[in-house]
Amino acid sequence: MVESPPIRVQFDARQKIIPILFEKNCKDNYKLEIIPPKKEKVPKSGPIPRPTFRILDDSGELIAYFNPRGNAECYKDVFKHFFDRMVKEIEKAAEDASREFEGH
After folding, report:
1. How far is the C-alpha of 89 from the C-alpha of 21, rounded, in Å?
2. 71 near 54, Cβ under 8 Å?
3. Among residues 25, 40, 76, 85, which is most buried (max CB within 10 A)?
4. pTM for this prediction
5. What one-character DSSP code corresponds to residue 65?
6. CB atoms within 10 A of CB 26
7. How far apart are CA 27 and CA 52, in angstroms?
8. Nearest 5°: CA angle at 75, between 66 and 21?
9. C-alpha distances in angstroms, 36 versus 10, 39, 71, 103?
10. Does position 103 have pLDDT exceeding 90, yes or no?
């Protein structure tokens, strides 16, 4: 299924803001790993392929994950306060983008 324009702007906003929020909130203690979407040899119609964002600790252990489609998961309690703040700001960016889109 193809993304509708209002949904696409939300996904785009999340994709743009996730690395910005990482830099703002936790770049000193964690590492951001961006997993690019798989490229199809023969492109298909459907949703736009999007990267996945993984946050790792110094040892390379997965701490949290974010997806521009709105999925997110925190795996370590030590990161929970950063995670909750990021999720809140990510969703605000998606809502703001949606409102701006609907206003045009």
Report:
1. 8
2. no
3. 25
4. 0.89
5. E
6. 20
7. 17
8. 40
9. 19, 9, 16, 31
10. no
Amino acid identity at 49? P
87-94: Cβ within 8 A, 24+ apart = 89/17, 89/21, 90/14, 90/17, 90/18, 90/21, 90/66, 93/13, 93/14, 93/16, 93/17, 94/10, 94/11, 94/13, 94/14, 94/70
What do you get for the CA distance between the two ends of the chain, in Å?
24
Q: Report residue 33 as tokens.
A: 């790993």
17 close to 2: Cβ distance less than 8 angstroms: no
Rounded Cα gap, residues 3 and 73, in angstroms? 23
| pLDDT over 70 (residue 76) | yes
- Which amino acid belongs to residue 84? D
Cα–Cα distance measured from residue 7 to residue 101, given in angstroms and rounded to the nearest whole number: 10
Per-residue tokens: 102: 């609907």
